[in-house]
């Protein structure tokens, strides 16, 4: 469990330098400077946006904050994907900071709008789905409502120890109650994410690898596989730590 803590802590501490800029075609007369911030890879853009919008509303006349959506190159950024997923999936060069464009017009249909507690509900639902695969939802169903709230609050406020206090329960496994399946999401550009149903070990008791997960959904190419900003090999073991995996073509 100590190793689990250290690995998860390193993943949690990952930060992405982002500069938010206004779309030049929409804001022709505006020369506002970029808003720069270090964003946790585990966070979500809707959690960062209030600070960004506050900045631009102070320097831009008649700024329509309610209509804002984000774009990188030609791709709209999905609100419900973790920032780190979007970065790994779409950022194909090594240039930093990551320049994200704010737009207010022609919002694409694939950009979901979150109101109130929608994002929290989406996150908790993902946790429940993961535990259904791991433990048939035994752990998450035994948790109190306050523990669900603490899990989301830890993401909202970037509090790792609060997160770990709950997350370690979701990672536990024993001989009497082993992990049944590995919860993993595989993302590709311009496709919905996929969740292969894969056991931790094969019939020969060999530990599964990233290659097994990719082959389960018929990905046979040698495209780079990226997780938390790092290119990982197809033979990577213990990929339970990798909360997402992105294949770039």
From TrEMBL:
<dbReference type="Pfam" id="PF20637">
    <property type="entry name" value="ATG5_HBR"/>
</dbReference>
<dbReference type="Pfam" id="PF20638">
    <property type="entry name" value="ATG5_UblA"/>
</dbReference>
<keyword id="KW-1017">Isopeptide bond</keyword>
<dbReference type="GO" id="GO:0005776">
    <property type="term" value="C:autophagosome"/>
</dbReference>
<dbReference type="GO" id="GO:0019776">
    <property type="term" value="F:Atg8-family ligase activity"/>
</dbReference>
<dbReference type="InterPro" id="IPR007239">
    <property type="entry name" value="Atg5"/>
</dbReference>
<feature type="domain" description="Autophagy protein ATG5 UblB">
    <location>
        <begin position="181"/>
        <end position="220"/>
    </location>
</feature>
<feature type="domain" description="Autophagy protein ATG5 UblA">
    <location>
        <begin position="11"/>
        <end position="103"/>
    </location>
</feature>
<comment type="function">
    <text>Involved in autophagic vesicle formation.</text>
</comment>
<comment type="similarity">
    <text>Belongs to the ATG5 family.</text>
</comment>
<dbReference type="GO" id="GO:0007033">
    <property type="term" value="P:vacuole organization"/>
</dbReference>
<dbReference type="InterPro" id="IPR042527">
    <property type="entry name" value="Atg5_UblA_dom_sf"/>
</dbReference>
<dbReference type="GO" id="GO:0000422">
    <property type="term" value="P:autophagy of mitochondrion"/>
</dbReference>
<feature type="domain" description="Autophagy protein ATG5 alpha-helical bundle region">
    <location>
        <begin position="118"/>
        <end position="172"/>
    </location>
</feature>
<dbReference type="GO" id="GO:0006995">
    <property type="term" value="P:cellular response to nitrogen starvation"/>
</dbReference>
<dbReference type="GO" id="GO:0034045">
    <property type="term" value="C:phagophore assembly site membrane"/>
</dbReference>
<dbReference type="InterPro" id="IPR048940">
    <property type="entry name" value="ATG5_HBR"/>
</dbReference>
<dbReference type="InterPro" id="IPR048939">
    <property type="entry name" value="ATG5_UblA"/>
</dbReference>
<dbReference type="Pfam" id="PF04106">
    <property type="entry name" value="ATG5_UblB"/>
</dbReference>
<dbReference type="GO" id="GO:0061908">
    <property type="term" value="C:phagophore"/>
</dbReference>
<keyword id="KW-0472">Membrane</keyword>
<comment type="subunit">
    <text>Conjugated with ATG12.</text>
</comment>
<dbReference type="InterPro" id="IPR048318">
    <property type="entry name" value="ATG5_UblB"/>
</dbReference>
<dbReference type="GO" id="GO:0034727">
    <property type="term" value="P:piecemeal microautophagy of the nucleus"/>
</dbReference>
<protein>
    <recommendedName>
        <fullName>Autophagy protein 5</fullName>
    </recommendedName>
</protein>
<dbReference type="GO" id="GO:0044233">
    <property type="term" value="C:mitochondria-associated endoplasmic reticulum membrane contact site"/>
</dbReference>
<keyword id="KW-0072">Autophagy</keyword>
<keyword id="KW-0832">Ubl conjugation</keyword>
<dbReference type="InterPro" id="IPR042526">
    <property type="entry name" value="Atg5_HR"/>
</dbReference>
<dbReference type="GO" id="GO:0034274">
    <property type="term" value="C:Atg12-Atg5-Atg16 complex"/>
</dbReference>
């Amino acid at each position: 469990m100590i190793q689990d803590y250290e690995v998860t802590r390193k993943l949690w501490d990952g930060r992405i330098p982002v500069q938010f800029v206004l779309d030049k075609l929409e804001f022709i007369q505006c020369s506002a400077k970029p808003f720069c911030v270090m964003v946790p890879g585990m966070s979500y853009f809707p959690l960062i946006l209030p600070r960004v919008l506050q900045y631009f509303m102070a320097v831009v006349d008649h700024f329509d904050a309610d209509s804002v959506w984000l774009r990188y190159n030609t791709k709209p950024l999905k609100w419900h994907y973790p920032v780190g997923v979007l970065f790994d999936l779409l950022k194909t060069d090594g240039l930093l900071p990551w320049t994200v464009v704010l737009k207010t017009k022609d919002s694409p249909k694939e950009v979901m709008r979150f109101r109130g507690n929608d994002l929290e509900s989406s996150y908790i639902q993902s946790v429940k789905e993961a535990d259904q695969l791991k433990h048939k939802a035994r752990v998450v169903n035994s948790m109190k409502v306050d523990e669900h709230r603490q899990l989301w609050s830890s993401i909202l406020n970037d509090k790792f120890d609060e997160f770990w206090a709950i997350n370690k329960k979701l990672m536990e496994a024993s001989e009497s109650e082993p992990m049944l399946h590995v919860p993993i999401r595989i993302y590709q550009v311009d496709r919905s994410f996929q969740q292969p149903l894969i056991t931790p070990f094969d019939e020969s008791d060999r530990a599964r690898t990233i290659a097994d997960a990719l082959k389960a959904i018929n990905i046979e190419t040698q495209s780079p596989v990226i997780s938390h900003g790092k290119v990982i090999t197809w033979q990577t073991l213990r990929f339970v730590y990798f909360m997402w995996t992105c294949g770039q073509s």
